[in-house]
Amino acid sequence: MSLPTLHVRKTFEPDRLGSIVVASPNWLGDAVLALPALANLRRSFPGARIALLVRSWLSPLFRSLPFIDELVELPDSGELIWAATVLRRRGFELALLLPNSFRTALISWLAGIPHRIGYVADGRGPLLTVGVRPASGTSPHQADSYLGLLQALKWDAWLRPTKCLLPPGSDAEAEKLLTESGLSPHVPLIGMTPGASYGTAKRWPAERFAEAADLLADRLGSVALLFGSQREASLTRAIHERMRGAAVDFGGRTTLTELASLLSRCALLLTNDTGVMHLASALGIPCVALFGPTDPHHTGPLGSGHQILRDPPSCSPCRYRDCPIDHRCMQRLDVERVVAAAETLLTRSASTIEENVRRMPAVFLDRDGTINEEIGPIQRPDSIRPIPEAAEALKRLGEAGYLRIIVSNQARVARGDATEELVEATHQRLLQLLQADGGGADAFYYCPHHPREGRFPYRRDCLCRKPAPGLIQRAAYERQVDMERSYVVGDKVSDMLLADRLGLPSVLVLTGYGRESLERLHAAGGPMPTHTAQDLLDAAEWIVQRRGLR
What we know:
- The protein is of the alpha/beta class and about 550 residues long.
- It folds into three domains: about 5-150, 3-Layer(aba) Sandwich (Rossmann fold); about 170-355, Rossmann fold (3-Layer(aba) Sandwich); about 360-550, HAD superfamily/HAD-like (Rossmann fold, 3-Layer(aba) Sandwich), CATH 3.40.50.
- It has helices at about 30-35, 35-45, 80-90, 100-110, 140-150, 170-180, 205-220, 235-240, 255-265, 275-280, 295-300, 330, 335-345, 350-355, 390-400, 410-415, 420-435, 470-480, 495-500, 515-525, 535-545, and strands at about 5-10, 20-25, 50-55, 70-75, 95, 115-120, 130-135, 190-195, 225, 245-250, 270, 285-290, 305-310, 360-365, 405-410, 445, 485-490, 505-510, 530-535.
- The strands form three sheets. It has a seven-stranded mixed beta sheet, covered by helices on one side. Strands 10-9-8-11-12-13 form a six-stranded parallel beta sheet, with helices on both faces.
- α8 (about 235-240) links the parallel β9 (about 225) and β10 (about 245-250).
- α6 packs across α9 (about 255-265) and α7 (about 205-220) crosses α8.
- The longest helix is centred in the last third of the chain and has 17 residues, at about 420-435.
- It is globular and about 75 Å long.
């Protein structure tokens, strides 16, 4: 697929940008699909202040994300002049316009933002200083269209993450709503979204949703949770009334945060092509997604583990809001086929379903001096040596249900003493040695930047060099970590400062620089570690013993 092309009318220096405002899409599904672009934008500009111009009802989606510094919520009326005035006062240097609307370009122009970037569409080309023309050929996925803006500008678009964090307190909200509905905490839940705000053409017949829910209840003992907007409340109510089996009708009754919290408890979502489908997939919930007039290659759920069902006639995809003939694309999807797809997902191993439904806690571990011997700069991967019993410690953490995520500062890359390829090869060698003794690690994250200003590739206000929280925030986003049950383990003062900033319990190991770090913390008055351990195995045993306390 060819890349988008640029039309630049005003040059600028990306490395000098200090503040960026991003215009968010206005639909739930599109907003979710914009998350990869926002994550990559943060990687490109780790020191910039990034704000999001967003409608107030969508703002809960973004509040827990580590790559957004500020939300600018649009009012319900008079948004054009209000937004232009507010943005002008805040002095943003660049506007990244994700929607293709003329209105967003006009707001950024009226705000006097010097650099305005977006796709050339809807007659707004003259209002843009950098116009991006979509790539020719087949239509990409909507998430890739947003990423295309970054790619066209040669900004970093290194991955397409597929998960997002739940807002704080979501677990408690879900527990409250389910308890009030009289549901047992152990009953399997299946979410259903029978509506579609785009139009009736995207809707599978309501009576088939009811029949599918009843069949799944008979075969699996599941309870259906019906979701929909206020406009769709009559639809979910009608389906509920047709059902024999147990169900809870949440149509028109949930905020966006409550919807996300309830989705996170579902074993799967049976859905039309809707924004709720994208929210579920971003939360790691598998979907049985029913497609008719729209193209799943353009708007399908991100990630793996989904079942996409379609039986397109010659007229599909048509993108009509309401079918002008007999709705054959959705009528062709019979109940047994849909139920079989749901059973395929639900009968996967219990551990796989549990991984999708419940987030896992993590132990964030320093590398040198904590897992492997502190020997100074490592010049060759084969010189790395695990500390005795480190593999056993990591094995115990893994068996106890913790993700083992290694986070380290690697300023050697900035100093020119090592390449990123050497760092990666060293990680792979360490992993091999740990696995040979029964241990392992689930992920490695490192910061390559220099700690002092003026040294390339120093990044102004670097957010990822410990004790800055960027590495852990990124890992938590990408790995869907349960931060409320997580820990930080290391041998350095920076590890203790990092844990303190994130409000996580910390363990200082006395290997590596541990004893020296403990003396420095005492002299400085803290922050003191939650626990001091002789080595990583001692730390792992303490964490595992506390498993039921957090």
